[in-house]
Amino acid sequence: MQEFNVVISGFDHYEDIDTNPSAEVCAALESRGVEPSEDSAGIVHINVTSVLIPLSFQNAWPTLRDAIDRVHPDMVLATGLKTHAHSVALERCATNLIDASRPDADNIQPRRAPIDPDGPAAYWTRLPLRTILHDFAEQNIPATLSSDAGTFVCNSLFYRLLDWNSMQSTALSGFLSFPKMNDGGKYGSGLSLEQMIAAAQDVIRATADYAIHPVSDEI
Fold first, then answer.
1. Radius of gyration of the chain from its Cα atoms, rounded to whole angstroms
2. Which single residue of 50, 96, 98, 179 could bond 110 by disulfide (Cβ 3.0 to 4.6 Å)?
3. In the chain, domain spans
4. Residues 101, 174, 86, 49, CA torsion sign
5. Which fold has domain 2-54+61-93+123-151+171-212?
6. Closest CA to 135 of 33, 45, 206, 208
7. Annotated catalytic residue: which of 100, 141, 154, 206?
C-alpha cells in the first residue's frame, strides 16, 4: 500500500481571536486522520502531521520548513484565518508582496516590500481546485476561490511554501483559508468547526487521489 504523507499547518493565536480555527482543524486532523476516497481505498494510506505556526514573518516559514524536513511529505496544506470571510477560501496564488496593515507577533510591520527581491511576482497553487470544489459542493460546504492570500503572514508563508514546492518533482502544496467559527447556524457568520474539518479532509483526500491518478484539473 502506498503511503501518502501530509503536513498540515495552522497559525497560533491571532489578536482578538479567542479560538483560531486553523489551529483547531490541524489538531483534529492529526487525531482523527483522513480516510482515502473510495477510488483510493486499499491503495493509499494517508498519514497526517500537524504543526502550529507563529504569526511571524521571520519565524513562520522556518517552523513549517522544519516539519517538512522531518516528514518529507507528499503534500503540504497550510491553513489560516480570514476574519471577514463567510466560507472556506481556496487560495489560487501567492504574491511576492508584504504590506502589513498591523504588526505581526514580533511587533514587526513591513510595508510594501517583496518577500523575495529575486523571486517571481507570484506562484500558483499545486492543488486540484476543480475537484476540491466539486467535493465541497457534494458535502454542502460553502466555499469560494480566492485570488490571493492577502499581504500579511499567510501570504508570506504561502509564497515561501510554493517557492520550495517549485523545486520538488512530486510534492503538492496549497493554502486553505477559514472564516471565523460559529455553530454553523444559517444566519451566523463563519462556519462550524466540523464543516472546516470536513473541508480540510476533502482537500487532502482529493489531492491524494490527484497524486495517484493525475488528470488535468485546470481552473
1. 16
2. 98
3. 2-54+61-93+123-151+171-212
4. negative
5. Aminopeptidase (3.40.630)
6. 206
7. 154
Rounded Cα gap, residues 66 and 189, in angstroms: 35
> Are 120 and 96 a contacting pair, CB within 8 Å?
yes
**Does this model's pTM top 0.90?**
yes
Name the nearest CA neighbour of 127 among 164, 174, 80. Answer: 174
pLDDT for res 161: 98
- Provide the pairing of β-strand 172-178 with 88-91: antiparallel
In order of 6, 39, 45, 127, 130, the CA distances from 215 in angstroms are 20, 14, 20, 12, 11
Which pLDDT score is estimated for 32? Answer: 95
Establish whether 26 is a catalytic residue.
no
Q: Report the C-alpha gap between 76 and 44 in whole angstroms.
A: 17
List, for the chain, all residue ranges whose pLDDT scores fall below the cut of 70. 14, 183-189, 214-219
d(CA 172, CA 77): 8
Spatial contact of 129 and 210, defined as CB atoms under 8 Å apart: no
pLDDT at res. 5? 98
